[in-house]
């Protein structure tokens, strides 16, 4: 699903998309629509990620491979989500 979604908008050259992952107490979880969290049951990190930098606690994708990167949550990027 992520790769298909990325392929549709990659021409916009956005620099990345937030995918709803966030690090809480050194554990990555999905942020849910009701302000709760859902444990991640799978991961698709790019090699070398996550970096565990204290300032990088949110998860984004940058390319059609949809590999995950951790990044600072204040970076202004669009997001995709699946209900």
From TrEMBL:
This is C-type lectin domain-containing protein. Coiled coil: none annotated. Keywords: Disulfide bond. Residues 17-82 form the C-type lectin domain. The keyword Isomerase does not apply. The keyword DNA repair does not apply. Signal peptide: none annotated. InterPro entries: C-type_lectin-like, C-type_lectin-like/link_sf, C-type_lectin_CS, CTDL_fold. SUPFAM superfamilies: C-type lectin-like.
């Amino acid at each position: 699903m992520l790769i298909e979604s990325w392929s549709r908008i990659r021409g916009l050259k956005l620099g990345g998309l937030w995918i709803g992952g966030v690090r809480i107490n050194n554990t990555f979880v999905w942020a849910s629509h009701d302000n709760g969290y859902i444990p991640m049951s799978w991961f698709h990190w790019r090699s070398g990620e996550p970096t565990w930098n204290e300032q990088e606690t949110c998860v984004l994708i940058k390319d059609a491979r949809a590999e995950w990167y951790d990044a600072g949550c204040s970076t202004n990027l669009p997001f995709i989500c699946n209900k």
